[in-house]
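Before relying on records like the one below, remember that each one covers exactly one chain. Contacts with other chains, cofactors or solvent are not represented anywhere in the record.
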Amino acid sequence: MTAFAPDSIVLNRKLPLWYQVSQSLRASILGRSPEAPLRLPTEEQLAGHYGVSVLTMRQALKELEDEGLITRHRRRGTFIEPAVRRGAPVRLLGSVDAIVAQQSGMTARLLDQGTVPVPSELAEHFPDLTEVAMYHRLRSDEKTGEPTNHARNIVRPEIAARVDPADLERWPMTKVLRDVVGVRISRITDTVEARLADPDTARLLEVPLLSPILHYTGITYDEDGRALDVAQIHYRGDRFSFTVTLDAH
């Protein structure tokens, strides 16, 4: 069994070091593999890993202890609580149906919609357009009501004209485009990267500022190779992990 290995971070000296360390360690605990041991490295080892003082490390650990993620025992060490919930996986299994199924068990609320200039970072995907349609939604767990992710969809105007906003509170954009609008989707390109929650995301997902999040970008193409929709989704890092299944055949 391999030792528990927390992620490394670049610390921002303008923010409390203990807070940044506690958030990084929190994400590592919630995203750990099932076979990872429950015992954490010593305070001195963790302090050396993050490049902070032992006093700062103790303050970070106390935050996690108060949250119920760990227990600390004199002479025995620090242990992850076995009942701590691991993140739900974000799975990309190679089909449109998998993308649709990812949002099952969630409710969606349309926060905003309208026509906006093509965002500069997405201009390469819409070279023939100056304006696009934008939809912003917040998704929550059906059972608990807890926010899980918020998504912005950037859609070609001629496609958006055929989208009923009410459908977006029931289904993912991918399902609406394919099964309601009738678009023939040829492929979806996905990118997932780690980020820190900005003020807007922290407010919507009800997490502390600079909490770890998963930022997903999905680009949906039609049969002519045109980008129809660019989805930008921010997932709570303490509720989701990222899994890719590759077929070896």
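The longest strand covers residues 106-117.
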